[in-house]
Amino acid sequence: MDGLALAIGNSRLHWGWFHHRSLAATWDTPHLSDSVAERLMAGGFAPDLWPPGIEGLPSLANHPELYIASPVKSQLQLWQQYQYAKVITTREVPLAGTYPTLGVDRALALLGAGNRWGWPVLVVDAGTALTFTGADASGRLVGGAIVPGLGLQLRSLREKTAALPLVELPEPKAGVAFPLPQRWACDTPGAIHSGVIYTVVAGLRDFIQAWWQQFPHSRVVFTGGDRQALWAYLTAQSPEMAVLAHLDPHLIFWGLSLVIGP
């Protein structure tokens, strides 16, 4: 199987290139304008048509098949115009117990996690929305939860209040301690950091503990753009819990590979 995979998130496009049935490369872009997308599709995704600055872009086959997984309808309508596009839906994901409104991104990530890390499994997807999605030892969906992600909570305070500033998360660095913020802050940005991060981490701990009570030997796998930050905060507060979790940025692509087949 050779082909291009596109997982459309709420804020970014996640691309994967499958070559000889293996995930050969991945890269991310912002949501692209209609004109850029149309140029890419018309030109068969040739390397010289992509916007500059993309890291990890491989040499793609001319006019490859494009497998799309997307809960974002506006972007889906744009990319499915490509003549070799195939839209993957939740109905096609071989996962028992799904419901009609379950996002295909969550279903694929759960399938990929179970196949790669073993069942039962809990997926913590730290994207624009922070989602928890779990399946039992037979690979059947148990259920999950959805809350606003770290970045969305920070932005909403700026956009929906009169006086609060926009506060950004610090970038985690490999091998560098990632401390929790001061809990009792004496400035507004610090108070926002404290409120958002401590409540999100408390909820994260509670969901993982509840999951392990039901499935004591289950794997917990973090994915999504804020996975490193969320895992680092959990490590700072509950290292004994974080050390048992795994980070895997490619869960959706692992799931897609199972749906696409050889």
Please give a structural write-up.
With 262 residues, this protein is of the alpha/beta class. Helices cover 35% and strands 23% of the residues. Strands 3-2-1-4-5 form a 5-stranded mixed beta sheet, sandwiched between helices. Strands 8-7-6-9-10 form a 5-stranded mixed beta sheet, sandwiched between helices. Helix 4 packs antiparallel against helix 5. The longest helix has 27 residues. The mean pLDDT is 92.
Entry summary:
By secondary structure, the chain is an alpha/beta fold.
Largest sheet: 5 strands, mixed
Give the count of helical stretches: 8
Q: What general form does the structure show?
A: globular
DSSP strand count: 10
Strand arrangement within the widest β-sheet reads 3-2-1-4-5
Give the integer mean of the pLDDT values.
92
How much is the radius of gyration in Å? 19 Å
Share of β-strand residues: 15-25%
User: What is the N-to-C order of secondary-structure elements (H for helix, E for strand)?
Assistant: EEEHEHEHEEEHHEHHEH
Distance between the termini: 5 Å
Q: Which percent bin holds the helix content? A: 25-40%
* Secondary-structure-derived class: alpha/beta
Give the key terms.
262 residues; alpha/beta; five-stranded mixed β-sheet; 8 helices; 10 strands; globular
Would you spell out the secondary-structure blueprint of this structure?
Elements: E1 3-8, E2 12-19, E3 22-30, H1 34-42, E4 66-69, H2 73-79, E5 85-87, H3 104-117, E6 121-126, E7 129-135, E8 141-148, H4 150-160, H5 188-214, E9 219-223, H6 227-237, H7 239-242, E10 245-247, H8 251-260
Parallel strand pairs: 1-4, 4-5, 6-9, 9-10
Antiparallel strand pairs: 1-2, 2-3, 6-7, 7-8
Helix pairs in contact: 3-8, 4-5, 5-6
